[in-house]
Design brief:
Length: about 425
């Protein structure tokens, strides 16, 4: 099992290009199941989640050709329809194969993904949306099963939870509705850039969709969709992680290959904290020379502050001058990083879905445990500013969503190395 060892004190500086977006590519990959021809994807990040979804697709009879710079997925109209627990439980996004399977093959048996470290994470909206299209889903032995055996039908539906819209439920229902008979109107659809990208991909495949980037999506079903070629957009969360790193180390980093508007909530927060921010057409520069100042952040669906950058910005707050308040509105229990940041000397008090962060002048290096993808990235950022050395264990969480974060940070001047621990 790998661990990362970070030596604190280096300033991050330089330029890099964002890798392809993890959250965009996963539902895009699942969309190969509704295409008659091959889906040729470029700029696919090399991540454990991508490999896992490739394995699930292979089990569904999809031909998967993962070359040096492209991923080709080709799904026949017929084939296996079961996605089992062993793989689905390791990655929630894999539930996204459910809707496409029912829409094209008329049947599906997909394991319920289960919870994760930051909460129960229900799939009721996925079920509600697909049932509105006639999927007649039932739960049997921990699996979601559907055997409609005929074309889904369009319907008006509302996809809202107590915490707002749902990204993957929107992706799921949107993709299935493209092959349904008649018109589907999704109210309270997620507006995340990854949904906009999925919509554009589906349109390139021949789907008829109106309203990308709005709360209402109107889909007029077609009988078949074709394959296409697609270059995956840059990962705004990976980019945001490096930009927070630049601000908190007093560094100067430019990330290319992103849409600056997709990062507005983060960039505005970094400005409030005293960092300099410059946007270009497809790049963002963040630089800082003084100690950051406190700020308040509330996570919200896009275009609000993304929950996937909450742990990273909280890490920056641990050393900022003053008291910051973080309110988590998407996943109220997403605070596993707090206990580990406390081990590094941070001063944080958690109350329900809020955390009060009192900035301290210095963190001190220690051994910490990665608990989930973004929390782990935050611990790496903490290591960059902690005095001495910080060892981050269970790095496989980071490798799920960041392509070689150690090499990427080292290219910006971080002192970081990866060690492979012999398994005991
Ligand atoms: C996606 C992202 C994840 C990000 C999250 C929120 C991917 C692969 N993952 O996850 O990185 O943190 O969006 O931006 O794109 N909910 C329900 N019922 C449902 C579905 C969701 O109540 O059926 C709730 C969730 O518990 C949560 C809220 O809705 O409180 C938003 O979650 P959702 O947008 O669905 O997250 P994911 O799409 O799973």
């Amino acid at each position: 099992m790998d661990r990362l060892i970070v030596q604190g004190g280096a300033r991050l500086s330089g330029r890099l290009r964002a890798r392809g977006s993890k959250n965009a590519v996963l539902p895009i990959m699942a969309a190969c199941l509704v295409a008659d021809g091959p889906l040729v994807l470029r700029n696919v990040p090399r991540l454990r989640d991508v490999t896992t979804l490739c394995r699930i697709l292979e089990e569904l009879g999809v031909s998967v050709d993962h070359g040096e710079d492209r991923l080709v997925l080709h799904a026949a109209a017929d084939g296996p329809v079961e996605a089992g627990y062993d793989l689905v439980s390791t990655m929630r996004a894999s539930v996204c194969v459910l809707g496409p399977l029912i829409a094209r093959r008329g049947r599906a048996r997909v394991s319920l993904p289960g919870g994760c470290v930051f909460g129960v994470r229900p799939v009721d909206l996925h079920v509600k949306g697909l049932n509105a299209l006639g999927a007649e889903l039932r739960i049997e032995g921990g699996y979601l099963e559907s055997e409609v055996g005929k074309r889904l039908h369009g319907a008006p539906l509302f996809l809202g939870s107590a915490h707002g819209s749902s990204v993957l439920a929107t992706a799921q229902v949107l993709t299935a509705a493209c092959l349904a008979e008649g018109r589907t109107v999704i109210e309270n659809a997620a507006m995340e850039p990854e949904i906009v990208e999925l919509t554009r991909l589906l349109v390139a495949m021949g789907a008829r969709i109106e309203g990308a980037g709005n709360h209402r999506l109107t889909i007029d079903g077609v009988e078949r969709l074709n394959g296409t070629e697609w270059t995956v957009g840059g990962d705004r969360i990976e980019a945001g992680t490096f930009l927070v790193g630049a601000a908190m180390t007093g560094g100067d980093v430019t990330v290319e290959g992103v849409v600056p508007e997709d990062l507005s909530a983060l960039l505005e927060t970094l400005k409030v904290m005293g960092a300099g921010v410059e946007r270009d057409q497809d790049s963002v520069r963040v630089h800082a020379s003084d100690r950051l100042r406190a700020a308040d952040v509330t996570t919200l669906p896009h275009p609000g502050f993304p929950t996937d950058l909450q742990a990273q910005i909280m890490t920056a707050m641990t050393r900022a001058a003053g008291i910051s308040v973080v309110t988590e509105r998407i996943f109220p229990d997403r605070f596993m990083h707090v206990a580990e940041l406390l081990r590094l000397g941070a001063s944080i008090r958690k109350e329900g879905s809020q955390a009060l962060v009192v900035g301290t002048e210095q963190l001190s290096g220690a051994t910490v445990m990665a608990s989930d993808l973004r929390a782990s990235a935050a611990l790496v950022l903490a290591g960059l500013v902690a005095e001495g050395s910080t060892e981050i264990r269970r790095v496989y969480h980071i490798d799920r969503g960041y392509e070689r974060i150690d090499a990427r940070l080292a290219s910006l001047g971080a002192q970081i190395r990866r060690e492979t621990q012999p398994s005991s």
